[in-house]
Amino acid sequence: MKGLGFFTLIGHPLFWAIWAIVVPQPYENLPIRLVMAVLGLPLMSQRIAHDPGSRLSGRVFTAVFWLELPFLFSWMYLCNGGNQAWLASAAAMILIYYFSTDWRIATVGLFAGAASARLIFEIAGPAAPPMSHEIVMTNTMVLAFCVSMGLLLGISSANLRREQLSNTLATMGIMAHELRTPLATMSLLGDALRGAAMEAGPPAEPKIESLGLRLHSLVRNMHHQIDTQIANARLLRLPRQAERVDAAELVAQAVAQYPYRSSRERESVQVEVRQDFNFRGSEHQFRQVLDNLMKNALRSIAAATGAPLPGDLRIVVDTKGRTGLITVSDQGVGIAQDLLPRIFEPFFSTNHKTGHGLGLAFCREVVRAARGNISVRSEPGRGASFTIELPELVSD
């Protein structure tokens, strides 16, 4: 995002010099170029660059690129009488626009930008070289070909990525299901150990009983992890539910049901309810969201300190205006700044040894389905803080 912003900032003055001095065109406008160059600054801001997956970043990116590409290029094409230089530029713009964003956004933006530029040109446009009927028809055919190719490639690429992701997720779900069989055997072994403990009597009974209980605890933990991975693997097929969910109760249940590895790990989690709120979404899916965030946080804390302390993981429920907030903060190893823009992408993980990169992608999809947003702030060595923003549900 920063690279695009930097290119926008320096690119427009550079192209003005090319089209106005080096290869003069009938129309070029320095003030317009400078205004467009300034639009690169929002793309370079910390909030946008470090959280490109947020709704704010998406809206800023869409608006800036709509002005920079279809609107500006259509305006310059019309002002230059559709000459060869701007016909080629418009054709390149179409392909770049389809490549840089979703094909649906590109199609709507392309026609809206061209229509807006045409309207303003008719009202306040400069005198432009006239275009003959032959030039209009020829240019229209060239541009229509570029649009059709951009649309075809955009749809094909989107379908291919979705199919690849779907097949990978399905494979992961099958593998998780297959682990149930050996776990069932382990559970039977735990029952057998506890039965043998009763027959052995003291002093062996307590030790064997303890081993059986530990085995059962391990099986329960593994089943929980499998449920988590299966839920994450349904990333593309999340059922849309609209329950009324109480945020404080949701957090309390998620904290109580999490399979902690030790009592110290459980004691490290502290919950603070400053202002409770209700929202509409899937309670089950949001418990899974908190489960993913807690798992990542506890692993990060273990990597940083080894032995967690009370308060190393804090979950805060609060409101800001009409927006509900759930914040999960840890005192772990933190996340490098260059990795922050990608952590919500499917299959991207900061933990290359055990992470599969689906947990946070799942979290983002669930939160977005509830018309909310999830963002992260972090510094290496100073932990991470994930904030879920949700529209507060007004009481009936």
UniProtKB/TrEMBL annotation:
It comes from the Bacteria. The chain crosses the membrane at residues 30-48, 60-78, 84-101, 135-155. Its EC number is 2.7.13.3. CDD domains: HisKA (cd00082). One of its GO terms (molecular function) is kinase activity. It catalyses: ATP + protein L-histidine = ADP + protein N-phospho-L-histidine. Pfam families: HATPase_c. Keywords: Kinase, Membrane, Phosphoprotein, Transferase, Transmembrane, Transmembrane helix. This is histidine kinase. The lineage of its organism: Bacteria, Pseudomonadati, Pseudomonadota, Betaproteobacteria, Burkholderiales.
